[in-house]
Amino acid sequence: MALFGKKAKGKVTKLFFVTDVHGSETTFRKFVNAGAFYGVDVLVLGGDIAGKMVVPILDLGGGRYRATIQSITHELASHEEVAEFEKRAAKLGTYTIVVTPEEYQAMAADPAKVDAAYRRLATERLERWLAFAEERLAGSGIRCYITGGNDDAPDILEPLVRHEGPMVVDCEGKRIEIDDDGHLMLSTGMSNPTPWDTPRELPDEELGRHLEEIVAGVTDFTRVIFNFHAPPKDSTLDTAAELDWSTDPPKVVTSGGTPVMYGAGSAAVRAAIEKYQPLLSLHGHIHESRGQTTIGRTVAVNPGSEYGEGLLRGAIVTLEGDVVRNVQLTSG
């Protein structure tokens, strides 16, 4: 889609926006490499960095190992096969840990041990990602802005908060000029409530107050970018299947054999967009609701996510002064 607005003022800035990589090594590396591939000026990763689970690899002794992922059990007969399994799991966004049967039983009996392993592995992967991005972007002139999402616990995000490299910037809760043409990005990875009780979600009314704190002091929104992980409610960027939570696992609610869909986004985010009318609004969270729309003058985008396939969904946005010149949804 091209030519939003009537006139342009200033130079062209191209940004590449991606969200919801959920621990996928393949997807994150593609994201960083996409800066040069697409010839953009700015990279933005809009949240949900961490993976969702840890898969144990049982050390059975004698060079034999066993692991189950996606309901398929794998018998591994060498360190090389273990390494290959770990690589495939990392592509899916899954963490792995080699344990003896005794260690596995101890973890199974103590959820705190599992949680500790998950947080350690997620933190270590994020640290490696930051180092990779710094190395790959060095000398390119491409800055990479990252915020966590609702799924990312604060302690897992600590490596990002502490990070002081020149090319990768933690933008959570901050107002940052992303170029020398006055484009100001305001970011938060917090979301409205979800059925999964994730680490960084707020009641919508409280989220609204949080957004007001972020925008406080900004008086001109003509070149402002909202980088808010949660999409605006009932915007077509937040359409998800309704789930019946009386079953385990929850099942999709259907009517006449067709899934019942609803807007799972945030009313507070929508209200902020309607009130302040930023130039651009970047969102994620609802993986299957890929697309773009307008709310008043604001161009709003959700690039979607298929991280589990190692597929990078993204959006190249071309800004020219106070105009969004083009939005190109990408996949690769």
Structural notes for this entry:
There is one protein chain. It is built from seven helices and 22 strands. With 332 residues, it is an alpha/beta fold. It has one domain: Purple Acid Phosphatase, chain A, domain 2. The protein has a six-stranded mixed β-sheet with strand order 8-7-2-1-21-22. α6 links the parallel β10 and β11. The longest helix is centred in the middle third of the chain and has 27 residues. The two termini are 19 Å apart. 41% of the residues are buried. The N terminus is likely disordered.
What is shown here, in short?
The chain is α/β, with parallel strands linked by helices.
Helix-strand blueprint:
Blueprint: E1 12-18, H1 25-38, E2 42-45, E3 54-61, E4 64-69, E5 72-76, H2 79-91, E6 95-99, H3 101-109, H4 111-137, E7 143-146, H5 158-162, E8 168-170, E9 175-177, E10 184-188, H6 204-215, E11 224-228, E12 239-241, E13 243-244, E14 251-252, E15 254-255, E16 258-259, E17 261-263, H7 267-276, E18 280-282, E19 291-295, E20 298-302, E21 313-320, E22 323-331
Parallel strand pairs: 1-2, 2-7, 3-6, 7-8, 10-11, 11-18, 18-20
Antiparallel strand pairs: 1-21, 3-4, 4-5, 9-10, 12-17, 13-14, 15-16, 19-20, 21-22
